[in-house]
Specification:
Blueprint lengths: L2 H22 L5 H25 L12 H22 L4 H23 L6 H18 L2
Helix pairs in contact: 2-3, 4-5
């Protein structure tokens, strides 16, 4: 499969994750929700590792880069807490998630251009401007 297929699978999985996060946001405190989500994700990662290893995928580990997934985990955990709070305060899924996704797109694009030296072609710039405009339109609704 090509990367686009995995993008579709990831986007679908994130969409379902967002749905379940929304419908349970007022049932658990944000940190308890985070513990349940990440604990379950940890179990999935163990099962996934075992399956991928059995299929011949290498188990890579770069000790010199360990701080990067740790920082990723810190920001993910923080994001989930804010995300659950947003929904527990009444944000509709159909508005809250697109706002978060739009801002995520803007932040990731800036970080990838500044730190990873990724280029922006005219089509990407138009897409980013469209996302920024969409963010402000959604934020006012």
């Amino acid at each position: 499969m090509q990367w686009i297929h995995f993008a579709i699978l990831a986007g679908t999985s994130y969409g379902v994750y967002n749905f379940f996060t929304k419908i349970t946001a007022d049932k658990f405190s944000p940190t308890v929700s985070l513990m349940i989500i990440t604990g379950t994700a940890f179990i999935v990662s163990i099962i996934g590792t075992l399956i991928l290893r059995s299929l011949g995928y290498p188990l890579l580990f770069d000790k010199s880069s360990l701080h990067k997934p740790i920082l990723s985990g810190i920001f993910y955990g923080t994001a989930v807490i804010f995300y659950v709070i947003m929904f527990s305060k009444g944000a509709p899924l159909s508005l809250g998630n697109p706002l978060v996704s739009a801002l995520l797109t803007i932040v990731v694009t800036i970080l990838s251009v500044v730190f990873l030296r990724e280029s922006l072609n005219p089509a990407r710039i138009i897409g980013l401007v469209t996302v920024i405009i969409g963010f402000f339109i959604l934020a006012r609704s």
